[in-house]
Design a protein that fits this description.
heterodimer; A: 114 residues; 11 strands; B: 114 residues; 7-stranded mixed β-sheet; 4-stranded antiparallel β-sheet
Amino acid sequence: GQQLNQSPQSMFIQEGEDVSMNCTSSSIFNTWLWYKQDPGEGPVLLIALYKAGELTSNGRLTAQFGITRKDSFLNISASIPSDVGIYFCAGRPNSGGSNYKLTFGKGTLLTVNP
Amino acid sequence: DGGITQSPKYLFRKEGQNVTLSCEQNLNHDAMYWYRQDPGQGLRLIYYSQIVNDFQKGDIAEGYSVSREKKESFPLTVTSAQKNPTAFYLCASSSDRAVRRGAFFGQGTRLTVV
């Protein structure tokens, strides 16, 4: 199946710092999604992006849909301890076939030191 | 409240036994999915179903089986043919009309085979 390259794999930061993570793909996506997963729980949708160049915010989170439609980034500003978790990017391909399938990155493990 | 319910939260089985994981949703979503999560591997799609009585293999379907007899339910059976069944299993659903909004996840079932 298609693969997304998500980086970094893990981050260890101090409370109050800003965080940036990104995903790249070899193929075009028409939707980019960012999820957060708390330990032992299912992922929760944070931000959805639908158009190339789109920049969307959700509180301290900001995400952008890359112009090439092959990448996306997520920024977290002024991190707090509850930001700890695994962040996943996910994309829906632009090619034919099922419109329902999502491809996920391998995740970025974020640790925030109080 | 609407949502996706996976049960049980933790499941232990002996090697060689089949085991069925439950997933129920009351969101009136058409599509349902099963993902497998291993440390550092992200989410990998096992099976998905767009409509009742129909389902398609995902990227890692070998050793698994599903059924979709009701819109609300999408149980996953981990068979003895699955070589490494110990993992965290996530069920998700999405709306046909709002498929671009991504999938909503259950809280997961952690399966341990000994």
